[in-house]
Design brief:
Number of domains: 1
CATH class: Alpha Beta
Number of strands: 4
Strand order of the largest sheet: 1-4-2-3
CATH architecture: Alpha-Beta Complex
Strand content: 15-25%
Structural class: alpha/beta
CATH topology: Protein-Tyrosine Phosphatase, Chain A
Distance between the termini: 18 Å
Order of helices and strands: EHEEHHHEHH
Helix content: 25-40%
Number of helices: 6
Largest sheet: 4 strands, parallel
């Protein structure tokens, strides 16, 4: 299954040519805009979580925590992503994963889905120009949750 990783703006212009599952990742306070209507959308799933890891969030001062709303990525979110996709996996030929920039969260979630479900995509589509996966905590949380689910 081909995985397409992209930014929010790129996702808004994307029209699937084959049956496609979408994972949309939004930041807290982000206002979603719908994707292009297409009969090839098998399912469009939306999740809200921010870039910060629990460790980063805990380093915020109390003032920062009040001023900067943050939705953390948890094992519950990882479980929801996996369970939601499994319902539709056999109907899909492609997957779109997007976040705001298409650099951190979407690549980490896309790589985790690829590795957990053996979707067959080369690792280079998930790496940034420095050949290093950003936001490792998203990937690691997905892997841990998949192991708990027996995947």
């Amino acid at each position: 299954m081909k995985i397409q990783i992209c930014s929010y703006r790129e996702a808004l212009k994307f029209s699937p040519l084959v049956p496609t599952y979408a994972i949309r990742i939004f930041s807290t306070n982000q206002k979603p805009i719908g994707l292009i209507n297409s009969p090839n959308w098998v399912h469009i799933a939306a999740y809200t979580f921010d870039e910060e890891s629990l460790e980063e969030y805990l380093s915020f001062s109390e003032e920062e925590k009040k001023a900067i709303p943050v939705t953390l990525f948890t094992e519950t979110t990882a479980k929801n992503i996996l369970e939601d996709f499994i319902k539709f996996k056999d109907c899909c030929e492609s997957m779109l994963v997007h976040c705001v920039t298409g650099v951190n969260r979407s690549k980490a979630i896309g790589k985790a889905m690829n590795d957990i479900l053996d979707l067959g995509n080369p690792n280079d589509i998930f790496l940034n120009k420095y050949k290093e996966l950003n936001c490792r905590h998203f990937y690691d949380t997905m892997i841990r949750q998949a192991q708990k689910m027996g995947m």
